[in-house]
Amino acid sequence: MCDNAKKLILDLQAEHEFELEEVDISASDDLTERYGLMIPVVELDGEEVQFGRIDQFTLYEALTAKNRF
Description:
This protein has 3 helices and 2 strands. The chain is α+β, with helices and mostly antiparallel strands. The chain has a domain at 21-67. Strands 1-2 form a two-stranded antiparallel sheet. It is globular and about 35 Å long.
């Protein structure tokens, strides 16, 4: 995982309770074919939130929307 993306995600753990799971796509042919150069990929409950360039605002919005329900 990109160090910058990981830092953004970990910073958001202070406000939102979630578990971070890192997956090495090179360990899976399916994931390598699916994501290739689009890493890092951030998923929330199995849904892609962002890929490639990760920004804190978009992640915050996705976490906030999930926690409303």
